[in-house]
Amino acid sequence: MARPRPARGRARLGLAAAALMFGHTARADSGQALHADVAVYVAQGDHMVGSQGAEETARWLAARLARLGFTVERQSFDLRQYRSKHLALTADGVPVAAALQWWPPDLPQGLSLSGPAGVGAGRFAILPVKVGDQSYLGGAVEAQIRDAIAGGASAVLLATETSLGADGPYLFNARAQAEPWPVPVLAVGAADGARLAAASGPIELRMKGRYVTVSAANIVARIDRPDTDTAVVVSTPYTGWGPCGGERGPGIAMFLALAAWARNHVPHDIVLVATAGHEVGHSGMARFLGSEAAPAPAATALWLHLGASIATYARAGSDEANRATRYALFSGTLAPAAQRHLAGAFVPVDTSVAAFGEVADVARAGYPHHLGFAGYGPHHHLPSDTAAATAPHLLADAWQRLLATVSEMLDAPDVDKGD
Fold this sequence. Notes:
The chain is of the alpha/beta class. The protein is about 30% helix and about 25% strand. Helix 6 links the parallel strand 9 and strand 10 (about 270-275).
């Protein structure tokens, strides 16, 4: 592999030096600008892949990158998706906030159920689920769901208790090829789960929906340099469950900020990809990695992945940054710079020891020099994950750490261990 060439005229940088050198990134309002992009992202609506909100987000990202001078293309792919036409859950006549856990049964003609909470035929099975750091349903919970269905449950309600103080219906990511549940499986918040279990009257569920094939799209943007044979890749997902303000918003805002910075400071080819379908088996990342648009691992100086919850609060109601459940994952070649700038603010993880999220996809694909972020905040995968899940001061701190880290990684003489 060719040695990554240092960015011109720059030595290794600490946080303060990076802030001074990179102009707008040092301004007090840098966090405000990042948060403004989070707000625009959230305003697009529900970001589930195949939704109108996801499509509007794709168009917005493409337009922003084109204005920055990148060559932009849509990398389209087909995806099975469930389109919910109607969903209403009530108990004692009072509506309950609920969300369908993928994959729901195919119900183009609709379904109406009524019954008590409990175990057995014709009942609504209520399963308390403690949500820790898992994005997908664990095997134990799946086994409980299947046992309830085998016992005759007409529907299964997962009463999801999150670990950082926010309450609501938590949706787990879906495996792309999984079969639909034979009965409806829904998420409700922990408090609503307790209320449903104690309801004196019947629980009622009305729903309607069907399966369709949707056209999803990664947004791929490039700047090709005439005098280099190496590339820097920056990736971020742009779809997810609901508004995704804290989960996806910081990554989206920093993706756009890095695009603006990289065009002037990175001498390598620059490849940017905003992937669709993260919540459905990382579908977009799989599509990109399997395409010619992805540079070869040996020709990639750095792959930077901006994953979930880069800048959120520590707990619901807190104004402190989340340091305990946000992770910086890196290949061993990049450990010194990652540890220097990110330790203390992020939990450092060497991907030779553990890897998760889409960073794991990049590592498995053989990219030797990778840095990625993943994690979860208080409102992760909840309807309450709005732009208020992050804030300018959280974004500004994470952005300056990120920029200092990337700057050093691209300058470091020991980055190239691939020869």
